[in-house]
Design goal:
The protein has 294 residues and is an all-alpha fold. Helices cover 68% and strands 0% of the residues. The chain has two domains: 77 residues, Helix Hairpins (Orthogonal Bundle), CATH 1.10.287.70; 215 residues, Four Helix Bundle (Hemerythrin (Met), subunit A) (Up-down Bundle). It starts with 20 loop residues before the first helix and ends with a helix.
């Protein structure tokens, strides 16, 4: 929230004037979706449509966020707006919980139901060489007895996933230290620990990129590696994307702190980004245990 807004200073619920931002963001996303769908189907020109859509989308978001920050710093947001922000962020994180629940559910169903079912007596006539062993690691011992899945090696919990777990858990601690420093009105300390948190998030993304290169080149583990490969990359890839988004949130919040925004009493912009980061931490713990250990 604003460094200039205090409880009761804006008694009414602020309603902004009609804006072009929602329409422009929708147009940018339309270009992104259309360009991406045509690009993956072999249309080379669609890559430029995708990049144009991203440019439109990011430009409008920058303008929209700058306007919202200006309204907040101008004292236009009351406690009613603060409550609406908190509910909005809560529902957004809930939607993200459901998003990951779908992929964890797919992993559960494949391992606990689909794989044993395909290995039972009813399917022996169709796939006599099939063995219901998780994970599927090659033709004849996998869900691909015809050999359509190339042999691969799984990624174990050590060392890279464990290192990333330590990085994310540490970042949660440093973010909490920064939050308490902000509440204590220690701005320099807050900024220092926020940059440490951002650096830990960036390191996590770098380590995961190296892990993906190792999986593709040395382990032959790909999206096409059966149900294991698809669920592995969907879960870890989307989580890595969420870490990247959370890192951007924390970066912009830190820049705002350096500009003098937020006070010990009014700082939901900080809190909202912190909620999201802690959510990312919790998801990773479940992913680390279910994907890398089991």
């Amino acid at each position: 929230m604003s460094a200039n807004t205090h409880a009761g200073s804006a008694p009414h619920y602020y309603i902004p004037s009609p804006s072009r931002h929602p329409v422009m963001v929708s147009f940018g996303l339309l270009l992104v979706i259309y360009g991406a769908s045509r690009w993956v189907n072999g249309a080379g020109w669609a890559a430029y449509v995708l990049m144009a859509g991203m440019a439109v989308w990011l430009t409008v978001l920058f303008q929209w966020f700058r306007q919202a920050i200006g309204e907040s710093e101008g004292g236009l947001y009351s406690d009613r707006v603060d409550v609406s922000f908190r509910w909005s962020m809560s529902w957004f994180i809930f939607s993200e919980v459901m998003f990951f629940a779908a992929f964890f559910g797919a992993l559960y169903w494949a391992r606990v139901h689909a794989l044993p079912m395909l290995g039972n007596l009813d399917h022996q006539l169709l796939w006599p060489d099939f063995k219901a062993i998780w994970p599927s690691a090659g033709g004849g011992i996998t869900a691909s007895p015809a050999g359509t899945v190339e042999p691969f090696t799984t990624v174990g919990p050590w060392p890279l996933p464990t290192i990333n777990t330590a990085l994310l858990l540490t970042s949660g601690v440093t973010l909490t230290i920064a939050h308490h420093a902000l509440i204590a009105n220690q701005r320099a300390k807050t900024i220092f620990w926020m940059w440490i948190t951002v650096a830990l998030g960036a390191t996590f993304v770098g380590v995961q990129a190296y892990e993906y290169h190792h999986a593709y080149v040395e382990l032959n583990l790909k999206l096409s590696s059966g149900i294991f490969g698809s669920t592995f990359f969907m879960l870890t890839g989307f989580h890595g994307f969420h870490v990247f988004v959370g890192m951007l949130m924390l970066t912009f919040i830190t820049i705002r702190l350096m500009k003098g925004h937020f006070t010990p009493e009014r700082h939901f912009g900080f809190e909202g980004a912190a909620w999201y980061w802690h959510f990312v931490d919790v998801v990773w713990l479940g992913l680390y245990f279910l994907v890398y250990w089991l």
